[in-house]
Amino acid sequence: MPPHKQSKPFYLHLTFWVLLAIIVAILLGHFFPATAVKTEWMGKRFVDLIKLFIGPIIFLTIVLGITGMGNLKKAGRIGLKAVIYFEIVTTFALVLGIVFANIFQPGKIHKEGLPVSVSSPPTSAEFSWISFLKENFTLQVLIIAIITGVALSLTSYREKVTPFLARITHYVFIALKYVMYLAPLGAFGGMAYTVGRFGIKTLIPLGKLMLTMYGTMAVFIFIVLGTILRYYKLNIFKFLGAIKEELLIVLGTSSSESALPSLMKKLESMGCSKPVVGLVVPTGYSFNLDGTSIYLSMAIIFLAQLYNVHLSWMEMLSIIGILMVTSKGAAGVTGSGFIILASTLTALHRIPLEGLAFLLAVDKFMSEARAITNIIGNGVATLAISKSEKEFVHPLAAQ
Fold first, then answer.
1. Which pLDDT tens digit goes with each residue over 239-291?
2. Which stretches does DSSP call E strand in 238-343?
3. Residue 159 domain-assigned (yes or no)
4. What are the distances in angstroms from CA 346 to CA 167, 342, 378?
5. 269 in any annotated domain
6. Is 192 helix (H, G, I), strand (E, B) or coil?
7. How far is residue 173's CA from residue 286's CA, in Å, rounded to a whole number?
8. Most buried among 143, 191, 236, 286, by the most CB within 10 A?
9. DSSP 123-191
10. Other residues' Cβ atoms within 10 Å of the Cβ of residue 279
């Protein structure tokens, strides 16, 4: 761990201001909803501003990581290890969602009085991997960066280009540091709009689903991901404490992308090597969506229970099999989560598509849990792979 520094007063920490902004936003949204919904632009503009950094940071980090590694075989091994890790952990998340949904049965409620008029469910049940690749900017940059890094590693220009890219990276992160000072405003706008638009009362009819979803994700984070870190002699609580600012930003904006650049920087400061961070984190944002996986599998079981549809174990295994593939495309495409749900329901031919309207009623409130679990999952993946590759400098040691 870095040497101990004299602690600053609490009011000088970004975490304090983000948390205060979220609390004020909830109060404003509850008591003055008409005013709260007008703050939506603040959250959107902050996320848009952060997204401007995602492309350059991913590109620069990966290119520098591959060229600095000096061993293309090692880069390929890290990439393959990441993909295998993602598939195993997200599949475990899918299974956990189904198991907990069957144990607690959140769909055993009365449909009368549920708020289904917030918006309409998607009419198309088709998911296109070509569209996924076209619309997933992060994945596009990832592919271009890997090709560029490999190409530079094979040429004599590597020694000249690398220092130049390193200087650009330094200035990009300095700019990001100043942009992050706007995080309280972004969190305020996102949370105030959500509460003002949908209302806390929306949670009451579907409270059982909310509690089951949040509880399952908590179990996944502290038990599953905690066990993974414990295996590598790391501590999940220390890790969560280290990224508390990023978690609060995600909570306020409902977007895990809003914290992607700062998460990469934070993981490097924890001791993860730049090549591992550059390869694992961007890839994880497209293929390692643990929170989304839990949500998708639990949502299908919830709808089956809501309509009193009994699913056999073979049908549940079919659900896992379908989602193992389609859940990897749940990032980067607007509304893809519901399209994936619709395509799975269509394949089953057992559960009415109209049930998606019930999920739409509270989806905004569940998106925070999905985003937070996703970012934690990608952080843990980076730590685990860094440790397994012996690319870890300052261990976040367990007590």
1. 999 999 999 988 888 777 888 888 998 998 898 988 788 888 888 887 888 99
2. none
3. yes
4. 51, 6, 30
5. yes
6. helix
7. 22
8. 191
9. S-----HHHHHHH-HHHHHHHHHHHHHHHHHTSTTHHHHHHHHHHHHHHHHHHHHHHGGGHHHHHHHHH
10. 29
Place of tokens 């997933």: 136
Residues in the chain, overall count: 399
Instruction: Give Cβ neighbours of residue 72 (< 8 Å, ≥ 6 apart).
Output: 66, 150, 153
Task: Tell me whether residue 3 is in a domain.
Answer: no
Kindly report the CA angle at 248 between 264 and 179, in degrees rounded to 5? 60
CATH code where residue 260 lies: 1.10.3860.10
Is 393 a domain residue?
A: no
Structural domain total, the chain: 1
Q: Give the separation between CA 221 and CA 374, rounded to whole angstroms.
A: 10
Q: Residue 253: give the domain boundaries.
A: 10-388
**Of 357 and 18, more confident:** 18
* pTM for the whole structure: 0.78
CA atoms within 13 A on the CB side of 370: 27
